[in-house]
Write a structure and sequence with these properties.
Chain B: It is found in: Endoplasmic reticulum membrane. The complex is a heterodimer of chains A (261) and B (620). By secondary structure, chain A is of the alpha/beta class. Chain A contains eight helices and six strands; from the N terminus they run H-H-E-H-E-E-H-E-H-H-E-H-E-H. Chain A folds into two domains: 2-52, no CATH class; 57-258, P-loop containing nucleotide triphosphate hydrolases (Rossmann fold, 3-Layer(aba) Sandwich), CATH 3.40.50. In chain A, 44% of the residues lie in helices and 14% in strands. Chain B has an eight-stranded mixed beta sheet with strand order 8-7-9-6-10-11-12-13, sandwiched between helices. The chains are: A alpha/beta (261), B alpha/beta (620).
Amino acid sequence: MQMEGFEQWKEEARQWVQQGIEYALQIPPPQLYAAAAVLVLTTLLLLFIRLFKRSKSNTVVLTGLGGSGKTVLFYRLRDGPSHQGTVTSMGPNEGTFILHYESTKKGKIRPAHIVDVPGHSRLRTKLDDFLPQAACIVFVVDALEFLPNLSAVAEYLYDILTKASVVKKKVPLLICCNKTDKVTAHTMEFIRKQLEKEIEKLRASRSGMSEADIANDFTLGIPGEAFAFTHCINKVTIAEASGLTGEISQVEQFIREHVKP
Amino acid sequence: MLEQLLIFTRGGLILWTCKELGNALKGSPIDTLIRSCLLEERSGLASFNYDAAGAGYTLKWTFHNELGLVFVAVYQRILHLLYVDDLLAMVKREFAEVYDPKRVEYSDFDETFRQLRKEAEARAEEMKKAKQVNNKPVNDGRKQGQGKKVGGFEGGNKNKSEANGDADDNGKNRKLENGHSNGNHHVVVEGSRGTVVTNGKENESSNTGAFDVSKLQKRRGKGTKKTDTVVSKGSKEDPKKKITKKNRVWDDSPAAPKLDFTDPVEENGNENVEVVAADQGESMMDKEEIVSSDSESEEDEEGKDAKPDTKKKGWFSSMFQSIAGKANLEKADLEPALKALKDRLMTKNVAEEIAEKLCESVAASLVGKKQASFTRIFSTVQAAMEEALVRILTPRRSIDILRDVHAAKEQRKPYVVVFVGVNGVGKSTNLAKVAYWLLQHNVSVMMAACDTFRSGAVEQLRTHARRLQIPIFEKGYEKDPAVVAKEAIQEATRNGTDVVLVDTAGRMQDNEPLMRALSKLIYLNNPDLVLFVGEALVGNDAVDQLSKFNQKLADLSTSPNPRLIDGILLTKFDTIDDKVGAALSMVYISGSPVMFVGCGQSYTDLKKLNVKSIVKTLLK
């Protein structure tokens, strides 16, 4: 049954091909050449556009631990102050848009492609999908609940800073201390120092791991010296922000520095 | 009352909440739900319970996979709200129509929701009433039936019309009620709902015509056939049996033709009636189960027969479908692929229960999604499963023991690891391997021989200690292991040892006295890491072992927040070839990561779990 159907189908197809060839033979050759040339040119053009686009990525990756305020920041960048709160993300938020504060500006502005990767540790593997295209990374840290999560934050940051895709392309990273509108929030300087200290510890324990372990591709910092963010191959800066009240000018600046309008 | 109803995207943005309900929830039930249920591949469950100080909530949820929306309803646990499932389904349907990815506010949905809620509440109310009314006539009917026992069937007609009159008053419940009062006549058995509903259908015809006893007798058999359908209808209406309803929705469509198949088996049908009548009440469920299991086995046979047919027909259409992409995936489409995947997981030694749950959760995440072009359903399902597996096996907490050791060192405390597990899984051997690994990283280690039960255990550990040249703390046999461990830790603190590895006696998960002793040991010494040692060879028992260990540790502990198992050490990994399912079973059931994998006899045979290769092996 099946084979018969197939045979029949094949027969029909052959007839169509035959008709097609006959039809093609009727067309004068110059027309054919012209058509072929147009085809080739279009393909090349499309390819060029693809290559050109890829060379200048506009992807901004928002990352950080769960509950640090990435989703709020994402929607703040996109829509400004209009949403009703967020819950733990189960999947990434992705969008290509002109940043909200620029929407009143005139002229042509290149939209940024912003990805908010969930912070839950089970979903972190998603980060690997986005990092290779990243033009810059915003690492969001909860300045309010900083100390209890210190080691987890440092570990995550360490993992990102040693990823091959980050180191090789020297992707700039911004440590964004979120929730600074609260009174009890830690200062930027304090957070930077604590993180450096913690990463220093990690450096010791990680280099002690055997090769079979989860191998980080690169080591951080200069051997024999206490770690500082200035030792990183890629540029690491730190900034304060508050996603809830909308004081995110430093983040916007950072994004615009690396995704040219 | 409903406490809260939320609609949010998978990305985590709340799109709409009910402002009228506006009660502040205690704690953060939604985040807890997402973290400990939805992200742990447990979304196949029916509901989730959340306990906060002073409040116990039950949460129910539903997904709209195509639009990536999640709907969650929160209500007080003590209230058994029957309409929540209905309401969620309705809200989902309505909201999907107004949803637009660009919009973030839906204040106009308030009005729609109010209506939906009223509707749902009214329906629930009706159901409740219907149930009460149903119960009443049963009693009446019983009386009548008993009365008419002598009078025989002649009076039946009259009675019936009376009953009909009543039924009309009761509006909606007419059919059921009819069944009740009538049923008690023909079949003299009293008040059993199974039979009662059986005859429900006959009434309509006999209402008009004369009452024919012989015909009735004949029909009785037929009526039984109908039980299946009627029963299923009945249970749909009956909110109490929601759970069973859910189960059945599954094989609803394949089961339908099956009911016709029972045609030739009239005698069986009759038997069934009698059985049901004798059992009363509950038996409806039992019977249904029997029927459904029957139908399942038949279905299998049928499936075998039907397969070549579908293949012939489906060759072109499936080809076309794979190119064009299917509109929306439905449960029925996923079924064969999921079954194949489940079987594959089980051949890899994944516990059946867990394979089942995983498949359900994967199905829940795929139903309603658009299938991409140029893919087959199987590959779609497999990709979803792979993602789920990676998510499960990726550790939730840091498994960097060395860093924790350094942290403990700074606080001038020894880092204490307790090895627990059933007998003969290799606790002592792997303890020695861990000691060796720690030694290599310049950490000073001490062993504590707290297996004071099995003869030779201390000597075995001593041998390891001698070979590795590390100190061992031992107090011989017949001592309380908790005390021995305590002293060992004190000793380590004095000597400035970094890590204490505590060996315990193997125990079966059901052995209460030994489990109590273990609970005491853990409570008394508060170790930094409780490592469960489990064999990779284990199959279905993995679930039992881990869940019981966790359960017992929680139950028998005297402290309010008991310590559970923090990590897993998987042993004998070199003996299992590609049957790596135990790793998945253990991680899924306990939620703690696999920290080490023992894969040989020598000290160096200790590895970290390679998640990617495990997932690959599982799906191979």
